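Sanity check

After download, print the first record. It should look like this:
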Amino acid sequence: MYPDYPFQSNYYTIDEHRLHYVDEGQGDIIVMVHGNPTWSYYYRRLISLLAKAHRIIAIDHMGCGLSDKPQDYDYCLKNHTQNLDSLLQYLQIKTFSLVVHDWGGAIGMGVAAKHSDSVKKVMVLNTAAFRSKRIPLRISICRWPIIGKVLVRGMNGFAGPAVTMAVSKKMDKDIAEAFLAPYDSWKNRVAVSSFVEDIPLDSRHPSYETLLGVEKGLEQFQKKQLPMLICWGGRDFCFNDSFYEEWCKRFPHANTHYFKEAGHYILEDAFDAIAPLALTFFESTE
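Expected structure tokens:
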């Protein structure tokens, strides 16, 4: 149904809502955590590549992708983190590596902080797991009372533009349609809108303390020099170079690769260059 996405669907029920995930391959486990407004489809080529020698778990957050989209759900960072943690416990996963992008950084590293001895490696793709007061105007507008919901949920003014604004290379039409397929109505864009509203810019925000906890959790990985691969797109209007520099500052031992011409959806723009880096990183025993 979706190009380059031949994976079997799996579901885990949480509070009567179905959470969709991909579970492919065998071997050491790699958990892929997407952001907003994407879904596990974003990782499709990386899943196919790494599943040849690893077991890949790629979640669709509640309200995203092929997961249920309850209208009265609390789509906050804490709940997304708990959902991923619950899924990993359900699958009886003891040790794992992570691939994180966009909101996946805060969610994935939030889970990692709870199970620091279980995390083997982390691959970072244009994301954050720490506080920032920076927000582009085009995203800030989507947070405005009333207007924001009309734009994001009614006019598809967040997910829609992302398939052009988050890449430097034009997406093929069928690929863009697959990115947007789960978000085809007001109801189905509920989590897209909620993610935008959940960005904690100051201490008054309900998710601020959760993000602060994630940020503090990074310290244990800094001390143990957790193996980390950072691949960064330089043409990201949201997670700009200041976020890249912060990751490099916090993890000076990381293996870093900067792709000047790639956008926020770095796996769309630079997959061919990133693929061998990912293979080497996850196959290494160091």
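If your output differs, re-run the checksum step. Summary of this record's structure: Residues 10-283 form a domain with the Rossmann fold fold (CATH 3.40.50.1820).
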